[in-house]
């Protein structure tokens, strides 16, 4: 570490730049150094580099930093320090694709340039004129990098700045994404990927229908995307849908999941609007009828575009929210700490999370309590529909709370379900902002709330969710690169002959071995997970009448009046039902959860908690939290050295590994019995045993090296925080100084 | 059977699984004073419930009769701060009563007035027994005669605690100058002072420090010999009075630590308030008089600001929470900002002692509110002993009780004067800070959250003698240890309830918490515990207990296996191939 402006006594680097070039200095003092280069991934190409570049350390205002070389490749921006790499305390959680000084190009969110003390957002136009003295990069995984460009040769600095700005900010074509150059060899550890159901074959869908005892129809007519390019390759619809081609690929109710009672959840895009009004209504009726037919002729419909914020609202809210975590220095940190809660509230992000979970609970209530079919709709049917249907399924079906189940769910609803990842994530830096929105992140946020509230119900950890949210911006995985099944297939087909080694080697994100070795993958598992005991394997008991379950509830607080438009009670006349059906569309402001869902939650809360049964989130203000691990992990001011949940987790993992060791010992002894293989990998956490955990920081396993000293972080500017102006503050400490009580 | 009535700390309404057991559980010497049928409790969460109400000399017990399952309210009268009739009787003769509680809830009952105007209503009886001090009666703690296996009054022995710290030593002595509380009536009898200062000099210092609370040692660093010293403000006044004995004392404190030629004086107050105190004869140490000392103000506000902040917090969380404005409402109470300032102050003290190896003097105005908050938090950061269950009890006995935090005044035990400006949630705030630290360091504390909540519940309950009176001298005079039971008798007789199963006693570990608001949380399981929606699915301590059991079972298995392995190797030493070479570390237990 070198400090600037302090005389530069230890420094061999210049503290100003104009008179001598770094080249001269090097030749003078240092023996010609071995040029350092990044270890390139297969298929990675270096574009440009500059040296010396000063990378500021993030943790204070002293403007200290490390000198090194900055590179830009077709995959990342990377900084290589001139200093010898420090011995890292722990490399257990090393990402194989990129390290702490690497920024995948796709992960760059914004670049700021500092010109004469003024900070300017870099857009395409600015690039050509001048290069800034300092470049600040904000990443989508919330890291912040600051580089000083004043020490390297002018043309180098200019080149690297323009190179980075060009490759990170300019609109580009999909073919330029690194995934299409990446030549990573598929790893032998493909086991996980194979266990994740990809929903790219008719068998996967048939199997899922069988698992949930669905009584629907598998559509294979879109195998070659003849029905529509916006529809999945395979999908499932209600039995009564007739001529598929009349739908023009729009307004088809697509099956998501079936409740054991027989009712099911469907999602749909809006019917085509080009038709006349009458046709539109007719179409709507057929759609609703078909869904209603699925079970007991009852249906509830919900237009999500009416009751939830739209994707632009989501985008705007997140943009505000993330700013609170992109901290450039300590002063900023303590200043923003003052109005922390009201700032959070003003972003509205937590409120959007709450609204989504609320809506999902309403869907769950219909399926679980009323046994009504549910149809959710929105314009495209692939944004909020995915969020709500996936959340409802996680709450209802414990299978989706296992790691494989969750991955299969993402495949089913999002990947095979044609969520427009490419547009929403803005991987190609399109200028048209209309289509960008962190919808998938919003979903992960909601899942995190569930994981946070009901940790023992989930096999995966919050670290898994954090890593998944990061992986969206690693331009290697086919999972997040396309807008639909058709898009994926056509691009993959077109690109494959170009790659010399036959088919395009573009792994899915579920092949975690691409990023992490098996030891690191252990962090994906939640040591608190309560595994299901074998004997009550019967997850779904279709024969068990529903009212029996209600009887087991204490009857007092939960007797709810029959709801209006509650279909099953009126099974006499089909026409009558159809009339009521339209009445039963949900109404209700998104802000105030309806009284009935409150009751639904409370009655659920009164039941003994079953982590393998229905799971509902508490949505009261104090229960909705910030995903601390994701958002605070790079901010040294909030690192808790020797603390945080890592302290508990490591201990639990240690305990579990002991249990597993014991099991192994037992198995070895009973060698006559064929050792049954556990699906879960063994926990091998002895490496981070407790001598180290006392010094691990709360941001582990993400940022280990940032904070090495064992010093407290003393806040600055405290008084600004609390100006109590009322008269109480100046009142005497002892109001009645002598109170006789002796 | 549980002898404490407040076992049901996390639900407002206790559910009786077996209706026949909805009987009133009476403690030894507890007697029913009055009861009434047909009382309606207006529950803010589930609406009005009818039932019967009993008042004893210790508790209020409401049992609902019109609902299945049967449930009720069971609270010690000590938590009541105010009982009042609301409005006049309705045409049907119904009268409303409002009960404001010290533990973040308000209760409302509706009751028909007795037709016989001579007969007292059950609520009038309630008022009498809720405020025994105002009615010239004794607190229930003086009647309660439960016997526990352990005597909690023996937990704290000052000389043993100082001995643990290596005191007395060549620089510090234990003075008997306050043996009869003549030097300072709010200080303990045993005081640790520098050897170079005579008792006579201490007497002169006492006239210079507010309420005679002279600088004395609280804690000494085992390696660097840097000391944490506590005091009250110097009586500098507007004329800048000086006291050469006081200056000598502070110099002696600095000299006792050879590692540093400097010292820090932490004044807990905002500098404005410290300066304003000069008008009333108080003030702060001037740099002229105390040359090697650096004065730092910690900007913590006074008891009135804290009381107001908690009042606002109660408004925001009870009974209903406005979800869409929850965060800004929380911010407007400033409660967490006060917590942040206190933690930040303690952190700076601990940092100077640990990293700077410097001695520190901590004071506020009188040295019995903000000062114990700061010193005890700093001590928890510095000394792992205070993070154990018994160590924490010693810390409370020492820094809070023996050094005269005015519990009687701040809590107002049995006193009906609810508007008393001397009441303030100073101790609650300290426990909140401790809770924040247990959140940040979940494996560093031997006790669990339930332990902290139990302490707070019995701060108000008046069941135990621990938190009665204002000082050590008063407690001796009232013979509190003789006539009452200590809270620690109860706690230490069932330790397993309070143990944190994840505890790893890092012995020489200093804890530096993060004080950013981003890492502070509202203590929902305490402040909002009456709201059934915020109730954790499994009470936390229940989960802890399960974990403990699981671990014990594991340990048993480990031991069995090790024994078996040992037997095997003993019986067939020739056959070594299959046996595990690596020994499995036995799981430690911390009970």
Automatic annotation (TrEMBL), chain A:
Domain of life according to the entry: Eukaryota
GO biological process entries: phosphatidylinositol dephosphorylation
Keywords on record: Cytoplasm, Sarcoplasmic reticulum
One GO CC annotation: sarcoplasmic reticulum
Main location: cytoplasm
Keyword presence, Cytoplasm: yes
Pfam families linked: 3-PAP (PF12578), Myotub-related (PF06602)
Comp. bias regions, Basic and acidic residues: 23-39
Locations listed in the record: Cytoplasm, Myofibril, Sarcomere; Sarcoplasmic reticulum
SUPFAM superfamilies the record matches: (Phosphotyrosine protein) phosphatases II (SSF52799), PH domain-like (SSF50729)
InterPro entries found in the cross-reference section: MTMR12-like_C, Myotubularin, Myotubularin-like_Pase_dom, PH-like_dom_sf, Prot-tyrosine_phosphatase-like
Region of interest (Disordered), residue spans: 1-39
Location of the Myotubularin phosphatase domain: 199-558
Similarity comment text for this entry: Belongs to the protein-tyrosine phosphatase family. Non-receptor class myotubularin subfamily.
Protein's name according to its UniProt entry: Myotubularin-related protein 12
Native source species: Cyprinus carpio
Lineage of origin: Eukaryota, Metazoa, Chordata, Craniata, Vertebrata
From TrEMBL, chain B:
Gene Ontology terms: biological process: phosphatidylinositol dephosphorylation
Molecular function per GO: phosphatidylinositol-3,5-bisphosphate 3-phosphatase activity; phosphatidylinositol-3-phosphate phosphatase activity
Keyword terms, alphabetized: Coiled coil, Cytoplasm, Endosome, Hydrolase, Lipid metabolism, Membrane
Catalysed transformations (reactions): 1,2-dioctanoyl-sn-glycero-3-phospho-(1-D-myo-inositol-3-phosphate) + H2O = 1,2-dioctanoyl-sn-glycero-3-phospho-(1D-myo-inositol) + phosphate; a 1,2-diacyl-sn-glycero-3-phospho-(1D-myo-inositol-3,5-bisphosphate) + H2O = a 1,2-diacyl-sn-glycero-3-phospho-(1D-myo-inositol-5-phosphate) + phosphate; a 1,2-diacyl-sn-glycero-3-phospho-(1D-myo-inositol-3-phosphate) + H2O = a 1,2-diacyl-sn-glycero-3-phospho-(1D-myo-inositol) + phosphate; 1,2-dioctanoyl-sn-glycero-3-phospho-(1D-myo-inositol-3,5-bisphosphate) + H2O = 1,2-dioctanoyl-sn-glycero-3-phospho-(1D-myo-inositol-5-phosphate) + phosphate
One term under GO cellular component: early endosome membrane
Comp. bias (Polar residues): 568-591
Role noted for this protein: Regulates the level of these phosphoinositides critical for various biological processes including autophagy initiation and autophagosome maturation.
Protein name stated in the entry: Phosphatidylinositol-3,5-bisphosphate 3-phosphatase MTMR2
Classification lineage: Eukaryota, Metazoa, Chordata, Craniata, Vertebrata
